[in-house]
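Can anyone check this?
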Amino acid sequence: MHSRNVLIRAEWILMGLLTVVCCQAESRLIDRIVAKVDYSIITESDLQEACGPSIQQIRENFPPDEWDNRIREIKTNILMHMINEYVCVRFARENEILVTPEEVDSTIQSIRERSGMVDEAQFKAQLALEGLTLDELRDNLRRQTIVRKVMRREVQSKVRVTEADIKEYWQDNADRYQQKTRIRVAVLMLDTENAGMLSARLARDKIFEIHENLEKGADFAEMVAAHSDGPAKDQGGDIGFLEEGKALPVIEKAAFNMEKGQFSAPLETSFGYVIVKVLERMDAGLRPLDQVRAEIEETLRSRKVREIEDQWFERERAGTYIQMFDY
């Protein structure tokens, strides 16, 4: 009887071992490899973890019939980003581009200060809610800093945008830099809408009195300071530019039919009486190069960064063993 119990116990142990082995084998099958990069691997769970937030946004913002295509596109993009990150880290190692622990700690300190989490325990608790440990955050930041340093040295330092480039782009893309007529105006307003202000009759009499004084040479900004209930009282009533088609019709009609320095007759609006003065006029047409130079330079710089970056990664990936699998 004793030997029979031993055999039964041995069978149960063997079955348990087989179950563990089978479960481990199944786990390896489920967490399969999606890419090999030199001697490193990227598993499906690595990719899924990296894609998690983006996939959640897709499910929240797009209809279900779009999920499969969008999720596959996201996975492809993020997998390539992970491969590119590996290439950067390897390049940094081979070229002695270093990130010190002090640099990483400084970045973490900045994150804590911006988030208002001075207490380390509170910070770690917040990381835990996001599925991270402090060591994992430190490792992520180290890799991100390496990538930035490599890109700064190998890409951004090689970008040049000349004045000739800017001028050529401005001329070739004139349709992008067309503007409608814009008028910079100052307003003097007497409010008849709010309780406690002048009655409509008194306001009407006063606005015409002010207008008469302006015609006699009174300074518009001084009259605004003394009498206006409207905006920008301390700036002489200057409310900035109005674009054609986007202003109150009664004000727009008056302003866009005046030249610089002219002021309107009293205008009646739903909120009171207004006198408008034109401070500056910019007629419709191609915006001057000086106004758009910085915008164009940034556009060209971003474009050249992408071009040089793509070329750099293509060249570095060519010298890397990369094998991708279905995912």
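Reply from J.R.: I decoded it. The chain has a mean pLDDT of 87.
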